[in-house]
Design goal:
- This protein has 5 helices and 2 strands, in the order H-E-E-H-H-H-H.
- By secondary structure, it is mainly α.
- The protein has a two-stranded antiparallel sheet.
- A hairpin with a 2-residue loop joins strand 1 and strand 2.
- Helix 2 packs antiparallel against helix 5 and helix 3 crosses helix 4.
- The radius of gyration is 23 Å and the shape is elongated.
């Protein structure tokens, strides 16, 4: 579900980035009032203003796709790997069974586009929160739009 949420951001971020890039180019020489601490400042171009918004969208995309990695969840009901070990047990011993399980987990992660965690994380919600926080906080003016748009 979270992978789908990440993937659903792609078209929105691309569309937003493309639109802002168009504004940057079209208004590179369109003069407007600069602002500093809610007061008028030296003139700037509207293209420069749009470029700062574009940088925020680019940063958000980087956060979502490079820094926020969702791990595959495979620990079982209590995080002991017991169900996975039972699935992969072919009577050869614990080490070989664990190796089979971790190979299977690697395949699952690759197929789903998820990371392989260093440990069972089924009760650790930090990766989920990290994706949600970065998706919300990194988009310019997400919380206060349109109040802080200018």
């Amino acid at each position: 579900m979270l992978k789908a949420a990440q993937d659903s951001l792609v078209p929105d971020l691309q569309r937003t980035g493309d639109a802002l890039a168009g504004l940057v180019e079209a208004h590179a020489e369109t003069v407007m009032v600069g602002r500093t601490l809610t007061q008028h400042a030296l003139p700037i171009s509207f293209g420069l203003k749009a470029a700062s918004w574009l940088a925020g969208v680019d940063d958000a995309a980087r956060d979502v796709f490079e820094r926020a990695h969702l791990p595959v969840s495979y620990g079982g009901a209590s995080g002991t790997l017991a169900a996975g070990m039972a699935l992969c047990d072919q009577g050869a011993g614990a080490d070989e069974t664990a190796e089979r399980l971790f190979t299977l987990i690697g395949y699952w992660a690759e197929e789903l586009g998820l990371a392989v965690p260093e440990q069972v994380w089924h009760t650790d919600r930090v990766p989920v929160l990290r994706v949600a926080e970065r998706s919300r906080k990194r988009l310019p003016h997400w919380d206060a739009w349109p109040m802080t748009c200018c």
